[in-house]
Request: fold
Amino acid sequence: LVSVIAVDVKDPAAPAVASETVIDPKEYAEFGPMVLHGDRLLLSYKESTYNEKYYVHRYKLRDISFADPANPIMRDAVGLPGILEGVHEDNGGLVLFSCGNGNVLAPVVS
Reply:
């Protein structure tokens, strides 16, 4: 369980919580780094489940828009081939760099 809290610091002497977004994977999860890109927060995590013989790991990505910090929009989790390591903007879309099983991968999303 991870809470992402947006804080309004217009008045530095009196910061206020603008919103709280909760990410609650249904299985055990290890969270990777958070990456800010414009008004978007990208966060990946590895979910692990045990199926009686071995663990199965699945990587997921959450994309949260803070265009309106008081009302963030969290998109559904999508599969990712590893933990998010970085983001690059290219031709109006995003190239996400992830790392899993010793490989660096770069799926393109927009």
In short: The chain has a mean pLDDT of 87. The chain has no helices and eleven strands.
